[in-house]
Amino acid sequence: MTIARPFLTCALSLLLALSVVEGPFALIWARPAAQAAPHSEFRVVFASHQHLASQLDEAGREGYSCLLVARNEGAPGAPGVVVWLARESGGASKPSEYRVFTGAADLAAPLEKAGGDGFRLCGIVLSEAPPVTTVVAVMGRQSGSTAAWHYKTEALLNYKDSLTRLNAAGRDGFVPIAAEAINNNRVAAMRNWMVVAEQGGAAAAAAREVAVNSDPGPSGLQRKLNERGQQGFQVDLLWKEGNDYVAMSSRPIAGSPAPRAYAVAANPLASLHSLSRLYLADFPYLQDRLIVTDTSVAGSSEVVEDALPALGAFPDRAALGLLASHIARNQGFVPAAARVSRGPNGQWRLTTVVVKR
């Protein structure tokens, strides 16, 4: 899962990217985004992590900025990594360039170094494709960008200790923006998770307090989120860890942040077609989906599902272009979360939730 964040064009003014997200978000995004430009063009990249950077750079030369990295749902994971990108239609979009890193807790150093060079994290995902299971991190920057970003990673091996360190980072203005499982157990449900926190950009780094809550069901999670929300905590990240659904939230230490309100419900995926509030994330729950929304913010959402083309030596540009065109039909909507999973016939499918505020 995921979330808060991705690096984007200013014209698009899009999702921070937890999402997550979602995640899930592999990367799970949660922090709401500004409304997208009404005319956007989208592109989807589907590649092995060994070839991901070159395909992203190719799209970047055409002005496509990274929106989010799709998470993998269910094991084993997809044979490649899916990334959604966008550019302003008809505008003079600036070229973008990308860096792709693999690892886990050792990602802190390369993320920090690339952040100092102006690259911003777009998303992370645990890739289980051969030859080795690894976390893949995608970073990008636009031509001419002078912003610097700083990153910390925290493996959640002991939540109490991790929360102490995350709060120490929060006092320095670091915000949790991405979460993903790490490959420290053969059983997927027993893997620990890692959080990435970010500081930087044009805004001053305001000190923040970080909190975490979890629950195995929708009613308990909703109650806990709203208890935090009344205290001014805003959900940054959401993910499913084992049997629990986990939310990481933060609030400014100074001032009196406005209260937030959240809804958590178990509904079919089709219910996302009729939301009147902002979608944050969704996860498998029994035969339905556990859907988390921010009821403080009005929003609409749609769901687009497509079969992914086979991952060959070269990208199937026609098939991937068709996926992008299906998203573009929802004018004014922007991908907020995506996941890759097995369909009933065993084929890999891409499910993308698009939102509009």
Q: Hey, roughly how much beta strand do the residues contain?
A: 35-45%
End-to-end separation in angstroms reads 22 Å
**What is the helix fraction of residues, given as a range?**
10-25%
Structural class: alpha+beta
What's the tally of helices? 5
Count of all domains = 1
Unreliable parts: 1-37
Multimer state: single chain
Shape: globular
- Rg, rounded, reads 18 Å
Biggest sheet features: 4 strands, mixed
Mean pLDDT over the residues? 87
User: What's the arrangement of strands in the largest beta sheet?
Assistant: 3-18-19-17
**How do the SSEs run, as a string of H and E?**
EHEEEEHEEEHEEEHEEEEEEHEE
Number of strands: 19
Structural commentary:
This protein is of the alpha+beta class. 16% of the residues lie in helices and 40% in strands. The strands form 6 sheets. Strands 3-18-19-17 form a 4-stranded mixed beta sheet, covered by helices on one side.
Short account of what is shown:
With 357 residues, the protein is α+β, with helices and mostly antiparallel strands.
Set down the secondary structure blueprint.
Blueprint: E1 40-47, H1 52-61, E2 65-69, E3 71-72, E4 81-88, E5 96-103, H2 108-116, E6 120-127, E7 134-142, E8 149-155, H3 159-171, E9 175-181, E10 193-200, E11 208-215, H4 218-230, E12 234-241, E13 244-252, E14 262-267, E15 278-285, E16 288-294, E17 300-307, H5 317-328, E18 334-342, E19 348-356
Parallel strand pairs: 3-18
Antiparallel strand pairs: 1-4, 2-4, 5-7, 6-7, 8-10, 9-10, 11-13, 12-13, 14-16, 15-16, 17-19, 18-19
